[in-house]
Amino acid sequence: MDEIDQTIVNLLRTDGRTSYAELARRVGLTAPSVQDRVTKLEKNGIITGYKAVIDSEAIGLGITALIGIIPDNAADHRDICERLRAIPEIESCYFLAGVECYQLKVRVPKMGDLERLIHRVGAIPGVAQTRTTITLSTKWEDRPQPVPFEQAD
Amino acid sequence: MDEIDQTIVNLLRTDGRTSYAELARRVGLTAPSVQDRVTKLEKNGIITGYKAVIDSEAIGLGITALIGIIPDNAADHRDICERLRAIPEIESCYFLAGVECYQLKVRVPKMGDLERLIHRVGAIPGVAQTRTTITLSTKWEDRPQPVPFEQAD
DNA sequence: CTCGACAAGTGGACGAGATCGACCAGACCA
DNA sequence: TGGTCTGGTCGATCTCGTCCACTTGTCGAG
User: Which residues on chain B are in Cβ contact (under 8 Å) with A60?
Assistant: First the structure.
């Protein structure tokens, strides 16, 4: 993970479809060597995938909400996590240090869907209480911050 | 935005580097027509970009936290938003319906950086109070949920 | 010091993919 | 009926991806 790798990562983070040839021009190497580096970054788990970024509203997922989960004392976290994972509307799931030990980011088409989703989450064994906040607008999301510093491989 | 477009979007969402030729095979069209569709999806703002997914820990951003902001009555939201945007560590920023009217997702290398960041956010005019929660683990993040339904263009 | 092993790049060759223009078929409407 | 528009195919061409052989520099062992 040297400076060139960092540049490659930053470029691919900003535009995941940049060709190897273009990356090569940017970092001053040839395409095969860049490809070699990218392959290594993928194998080492630094680059874990590539995604098209979609406008949620444009595909009918107009409502974004954050759901906090307060567990009861008997909560089996493995089970909770598994059941949460089975719900496709939950796009992100964080395990937190606090009273609300999970926070979910969910997207649904309509308010009715959100209500059903909240009931579904609330019905999971070990979930004592949920707290839902609607997002009025997303100012920005998943903005890539540059690789901060030299990092061991 | 017909069924074929939905398939294309779902495929690119899962692997943003899928070639036009491969997409064409999957949806049963030729490469040029798929390319045409993708270009239109980009122009219509449905596909807004492509990103490599990076393991934050692997690049030295080992700490993820959620920061809620409670504003005071005189808060100028345009100004707050602008100042927040200038802070690179804030990867996502949601405007919420609730007492905490913003929630930030931030990533930093070390605890000291988080402390400095909290102070920086707390010092923004119009910010009455912040509430920070550390994430112990990210169960998953930005999992693409399939396009739900036929949607007008 | 020299040798061999290894990591990282280069250059060339070849097949696959991207891209462009020309052309075609069906839908819609005056 | 005929014109136009949309969305597709086909074929040509150029770029890109990918593989392989070769080179260079580094480092440790003998």
Answer: 147-149, 151
Q: How far is CA B98 from CA A3, B68, B71, B94, B103, in A?
A: 43, 10, 11, 12, 10
- CA–C1' distance A60–D17 (Å)? 36
Q: Could you give the CA distance from residue B78 to residue B133 in angstroms, rounded to a whole number?
A: 25
Contact criterion met (CB below 8 Å) for A45 and B55:
yes
| CA B38 / C1′ C22 distance in Å | 22
The neighbouring-strand residues paired with A105 are: A66, A92
pTM of the model: 0.91
Distance CA(A83)–CA(A63), nearest Å, equals 22
| Residue A28 to residue A31: CA distance in whole angstroms | 10
Q: Which of B39, B54, B93, B134 to mutate to test the interface with A (most CBs of A within 10 A)?
A: B54
Q: In the structure encoding, which two tokens stand for residue B144, read together?
A: 């693409």
State whether the beta carbon of B32 lies below 7 angstroms from any atom of strand D.
Answer: yes
Buried b (16+ CB within 10 A) or exposed e, A5-43: bbbbbbbbbeebbbebeebbeebebeeeebeebbeebee
Quick one: pLDDT band at residue B146, thresholds 50, 70, 90? confident
Rounded to whole angstroms, the Cα distance separating B66 from B93 reads 10
pLDDT for the residue A150:
52
